[in-house]
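Try this one yourself first.
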């Protein structure tokens, strides 16, 4: 039977406050799962969606923890009562035989609210089974909600997209929830040095708790020069080497997207190729890259979406990192809000008041 739920609705008119509405979640379709949620992350990328023009109401959120209350007849990997995470990356796209479906939800006034792949700003959600990942029931259900986006995106970019190895140098531009997850992964693989770049001394100090070895305040110094100085050395033939082996942009603004390429290590002709710049943050503008630097130093500029992760494979690994103390999710989650406080949560995120990651608790 349908399930009562309270969901956050982003109105059709841009700029209007978000509202919480009571709705009825329909019985799941053949490939759908209904999840009663414990907690959901509040992701910075959703600010872009809130401010983007639209032609209908939308429902947001894409990382959460919860318990299955109903499943469709074709769903076999979870059952009622299972603890799960809801995410926005297909859990096993490599072996999928069908494209996952999105969900549109009818509101009380009869209008249709659109979603992207999943929605988690709700105490109950319904999602295609490809966005629902079974987890062991022994983990905490609040802070682990951020694994489905922040951790996957940041840590996965280091671990999978870049494939950082022990002893390689890493610079991370932007140390919010995604950047801190990237730093934690760099620590797990024994990268050195691990350089955090931000505009706020408090956030840089916070990044040290997750594994950063150095902090660079880009409001006071040139971060490219600082990174080059921290990584400067010579090779066996005496040629100068400077810059990070991997430079990650976890923000997505034009300035940082353009800074990570010159911050990456230079190449030495006939000896070694240059470093790699990795774009992790959601871009909002075009960029201009120095093609000469890219060519002469044989550098790479990569994109990383969802940390190149496969949730069925990787969420268990991130939970293990948490259990073993390598990923401090208790520290990463710095603010908690109730569903009726969603406008306060969005304002806090937009105004830079969230040091790590915020969550909604249901």
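Now uncover the answer:
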């Amino acid at each position: 039977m349908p399930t009562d739920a309270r969901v956050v609705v982003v109105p059709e008119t841009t700029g209007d406050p978000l509202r919480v509405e009571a709705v009825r979640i329909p019985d799941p379709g053949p490939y759908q799962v209904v999840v009663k949620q414990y907690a959901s992350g509040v992701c910075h990328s959703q600010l872009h969606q809130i401010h983007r023009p639209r032609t209908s109401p939308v429902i947001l959120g894409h990382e959460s923890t919860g318990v299955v209350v109903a499943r469709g007849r074709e769903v076999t990997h979870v059952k009622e009562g299972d603890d799960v995470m809801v995410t926005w990356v297909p859990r096993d796209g490599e072996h999928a035989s069908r494209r996952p479906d999105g969900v549109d939800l009818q509101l009380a006034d009869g209008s249709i609210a659109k979603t992207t792949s999943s929605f988690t700003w709700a105490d109950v959600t319904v999602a295609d089974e490809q966005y629902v990942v079974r987890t062991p029931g022994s983990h905490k259900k609040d802070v682990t909600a951020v694994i489905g986006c922040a951790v996957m995106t940041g840590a996965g970019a280091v671990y999978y997209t870049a494939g950082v190895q022990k002893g390689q140098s890493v610079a991370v531009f932007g140390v919010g929830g995604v950047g801190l997850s990237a730093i934690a992964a760099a620590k797990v693989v024994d990268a050195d040095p691990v350089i955090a770049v931000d505009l706020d001394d408090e956030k840089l100090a916070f990044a040290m708790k997750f594994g950063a070895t150095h902090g660079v305040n880009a409001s006071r110094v040139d971060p490219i020069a600082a990174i080059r100085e921290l990584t400067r050395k010579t090779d066996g033939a005496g040629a100068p080497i400077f810059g990070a082996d991997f430079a990650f942009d976890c923000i997505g603004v034009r300035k940082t997207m353009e800074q990570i390429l010159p911050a990456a290590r230079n190449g030495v002709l006939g000896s070694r190729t240059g470093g790699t710049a990795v774009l992790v943050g959601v871009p909002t503008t075009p960029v201009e890259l120095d093609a000469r630097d890219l060519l002469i130093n044989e550098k790479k500029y990569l994109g990383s979406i969802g940390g190149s992760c496969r949730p069925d494979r990787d969420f268990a690994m991130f939970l293990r990192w948490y259990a073993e103390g390598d990923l401090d999710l208790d520290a990463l989650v710095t603010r908690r809000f109730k569903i009726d406080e969603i406008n306060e949560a969005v304002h806090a995120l937009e105004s830079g008041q969230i040091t790590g990651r915020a969550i909604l608790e249901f």
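Discussion: The chain has a mean pLDDT of 95. The chain has ten helices and 19 strands.
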